[in-house]
């Protein structure tokens, strides 16, 4: 009968080292993947926050331009307020995390009309200076975006 020689365990040691190196490679890849996933999540949330602030700014400007009532509201102490949300009508529900809100306020900057250089008197064109400030905040990432636009409105007396 054939007898096996005593083994010193070298094959087991080599297998254990290979297993250890494989485990380190898997853990490293998983960690890098999780980091990339988190980075992507933060970028998506920040981009959405900016887009909502920009959307609120443009919506406020559109309302101001198209509605005489909105222009009168912009002259009030509270100003013309517009709110948009990541969970609002038409918004995608695929955004992970909590709701992002953006608020825009249009206020008159110069309450006294600035006269046109061509006609200063009665019946002339008057310009009013307005400012819209838009702010969006993401409660999940604590990102905050502030945008501001200034413009003048021509009104004929």
Automatic annotation (TrEMBL):
<feature type="region of interest" description="Disordered">
    <location>
        <begin position="67"/>
        <end position="98"/>
    </location>
</feature>
<protein>
    <recommendedName>
        <fullName>Type 4 fimbrial biogenesis protein PilX N-terminal domain-containing protein</fullName>
    </recommendedName>
</protein>
């Amino acid at each position: 009968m054939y007898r096996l020689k005593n083994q010193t365990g070298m094959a087991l040691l080599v297998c254990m080292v290979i297993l250890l190196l494989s485990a380190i490679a898997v853990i490293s890849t998983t960690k890098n993947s999780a980091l990339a996933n988190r980075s992507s999540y933060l970028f998506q949330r920040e981009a959405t926050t900016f887009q909502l602030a920009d959307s609120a700014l443009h919506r406020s400007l559109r309302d101001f331009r198209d509605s005489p009532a909105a222009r009168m509201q912009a002259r009030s102490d509270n100003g013309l307020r517009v709110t948009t949300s990541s969970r609002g009508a038409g918004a995608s529900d695929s955004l992970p995390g909590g709701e992002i809100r953006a608020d825009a306020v249009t206020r008159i900057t110069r309450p006294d009309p600035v006269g046109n250089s061509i006609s200063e008197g009665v019946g002339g064109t008057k310009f009013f200076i307005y400012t819209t400030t838009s702010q969006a905040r993401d409660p999940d990432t604590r990102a905050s975006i502030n945008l501001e636009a200034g413009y003048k409105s021509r009104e004929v007396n």
